[in-house]
Design brief:
By secondary structure, the protein is α/β, with parallel strands linked by helices. Helices cover about 35% and strands about 25% of the residues. Strands 3-2-4-1-10-9-11-15 form an eight-stranded antiparallel β-sheet. Strand 21, helix 15 and strand 22 form a beta-alpha-beta unit. The radius of gyration is 25 Å and the shape is globular.
Amino acid sequence: MCGIVGYVGRELAAPFLLQSLKRLEYRGYDSAGIALIEDGRLLRFRRAGKVKDLEASLDVAAFAARVGIGHTRWATHGAPTDDNAHPHLDCSGRIAVIHNGIIENHAVLRHQLEAEGHVFSSQTDTEVLAHLIESLSEGDLLDAVRRAVAQAQGAFAVAVLSQDDPSRIVVAKRGSPLVVGRGEGAGYVSSDVPALLGKATEVQFLLDDEVGEVRCDGYAVFTLDGRPVHRPPHRVSADPIAIQKGGYKHFMLKEIHEQPRSVGETIREKLDEATHALSLPALEKGFADIDHVYFVACGTAFHAAKVAEYLWEDVLPVPTHAVIASEFRLRNPHITPRTLVIAVSQSGETIDTLMAVRRARARGARVVALVNAEQSAIERESDAVVYTRAGIEIGVAATKTFTAQIAALGLVGLALGRRRNPDSEAVCARELAELALLPGRIVEALRVEARIQSLAEQLHRASDVLFLARGVLFPIALEGALKLKEISYIHAEGYPAGEMKHGPIALIDEGKPVVMLASRDIAYEKLLSNMEEVKARKGLVIAVSDAPDDPNLRRLADEVLPVPAATGISAPILFTIPLQLLAYHVAVSLGTDVDQPRNLAKTVTVE
């Protein structure tokens, strides 16, 4: 949620800020703004809407500023208006602040500051920081920011620019991600590395309760009490091409088609294809005696965790439960030092998942992070980490990271199962052989796209869609419904097919689309019976199946979308592909903003 960028250097700041904000659009936002220092004056420009709307209102070539900050805001406190957009200023108009996250004690601080005579012009919690820094300033911006964030409560990342100190940007972080970097004759700030690709050559990820300053010769990081922080920097190795569409109409479509590579890379890192030997060094010590497993995750990652819950039951002889991270914190789960908690997050910064990790660790559990981004908050607070190797995902609706999560979780389950359950060896050997073939099978599954594109022209008029499945495919039904909701705004629900008669059947009438996932290996005859029930009520049956030529299936389904036959870990991944394509093409038919659906953000850093 929200995006932060900052630049100090020899080049013009405004073009960099606007281009970098465009690179962060995938995070989700509803307004944008920049602040520059030029000829000794602080200039601010804000606009509700997209970065392109802000850019259209500016004569970018007219600015000579070499220092500036920029922000995209996802509204929390106050509506998405020009006045609530960042940056926010102090009373004097000399200090500009941009901020991700939430200042939880903003109301108390605002009341104190108003009593001192400060006048506010927005409804945001962020503006409190600008006035607080002003009130604490004694000539040293870094010291004022340090003292201000020490008073603030909540999760936040902050960048501050001062007209009186134009050679640097001051930053601070607690909870929300923030990166500082250096390049040739320039210093950089960002909430995410993609904004800096092709510019910064090295970066440093700030940890909680650290402050820093960014200058044209680089950066320095300090603790809240002023002690210098020395950590090795990280080289910026990602290819800028990864954040380009590469000829596809949308990033989401590109990322759907990247899944043979992203799943393949995730598997190959952990599996020797020649010998089928499984290598997960992070799990080699300290996890042999676990007696209970919890997966904690949100959104699409939770659906991957639900898939893992089913898969792990076949190989690991301990209770296994997937729990929505925000609910995990409100429950009283059975946790001991022999409990394993797997935290699943694409970004590694999802605040609810991070809070669940902290709760689990406080109660003595061992925690493994399963993330797609290195050096994330969840990784730092875990005992071990397993990476998905999906690469940068720009589309807000997760696609390639979801299938990579299933693959990685499946392999983790096999690795732990081999140690705990000698009888699982045959299952493991079969699974690993199947996984070696999976990238090619995903290529085959993608060939159904032309048929799906035609079907989408029919489905985009629907007001509701049901997704039904059984067994390990039930979480895939949940994910298919979520994808359709996220990007087309059509109401959709996923259910276990056996539950249809316990409520959802009341929704089925003539023409109601019902997407049914039918695998020969998972209660197939019962799925056919469910189709009979839908057809008896004149519903429209769309079958996704690895038995596309079965006459009984052909008789009942109005449309059959084939997937390659596979078992175990491979099956849910392959059944996912047509559902992703279906959601995408329905959304395109409706003309929605596929890559940046309304109200959604890629990285959710507020509770």
